[in-house]
Design a protein that fits this description.
This is LRRC18-like protein. One of its GO terms (cellular component) is cytoplasm. Residues 71-178 form the Disease resistance R13L4/SHOC-2-like LRR domain. By secondary structure, the protein is an alpha/beta fold. The protein has a single domain (17-200), classed as Leucine-rich repeat, LRR (right-handed beta-alpha superhelix) (Alpha-Beta Horseshoe). The protein is 16% helix and 10% strand. β1 and β2 form a beta hairpin. The protein starts with 16 loop residues before the first helix and ends with a helix.
Amino acid sequence: MAKGKKSGEPKGKKITLKMAKNALRLTVDGKRRLDLSNMEIATFPKCILKLADVDELDLSRNMLRKIPDSIHEFVNIRMLDLHSNQLENLPAAIGRLQNLVSLNLCNNRLTDVGLPSEVFLLRKLRSLNLGMNFLDAVPSSIGALKELRHLGIFNNNLTRLPESLHSLPNLESLNARCNLIPSDDKPPLDPIQRVECLYLVKESCLCEPCLKRLKEERQKMDSRIDDAPAKKRSMFTGLVTPNSVAQDEQATWR
C-alpha cells in the first residue's frame, strides 16, 4: 500500500476555492446558489466554508459519506440538496440551520440511528425528502415541523406512519410509496395528496441490489410493452417527452 493512503478511503475529485467560486450561480429569484452537484466529490470540501454566506448549496449526485459539523456555518442557507450520495448519518449541527426551507436527503443510506432528532428542529422547513433510504420509522417529532408542505418518505422500510403527521397543518403532498406499510393499517390522510418523483442517476451510483432490481423492473416493463396490442403501443407515436410529468415532479422536489 502506498504511504499515506488508507485502505477503503473513497477516491474523488478535489475541489479548490477557485473551482467553488466558478460554481456560484444566481437563481431567477436572486439567490446565490453554490452548485457542486455531480462532480465526483467524495469528501466535503472545506474550502467552501469561505462561501458560507450562500443561500443554496447543492452537493447532490456525488460520493459523500459524511457531512461535517461545520455545516452549521452556512447560517443563511435556505436550500440544502444532498440527494444521491452515500450518507449513513447526519451531524446534529444540521439543526442549527434555522433558515432552511428545503432539505433533500433522497437516495442515501440513512437509518433511524443516522437521522438526528435535530432535523425536526428546523421550524421553517417546507420540503423534506427522505425517500430511498433505510428508515424503519419516522419519528413522531416530525409533527413539530408546522411549516412542512411536502414530505417524501418513499422506498424505505417503514411499517407504519406516525399519527403526528395529522398535526402538520400545511402538509400538501406526501409520498410514502414502496414501504412495508399494510394497506389496512394506513391511517386516513384525506387532505394529503400522494405524489411520485423521479431521479436520474448513473448506474455506477447505484448499489448492486438496487441495480439488479432496476434491471428486473425494466425487463418486466419491456415485456409488457412487447405483449401489448399494436394499437395501444402506437398511442405514443410522436410523443417527444413521455416522461415530462415526472420531470416536473422532480423539479418540485429539487
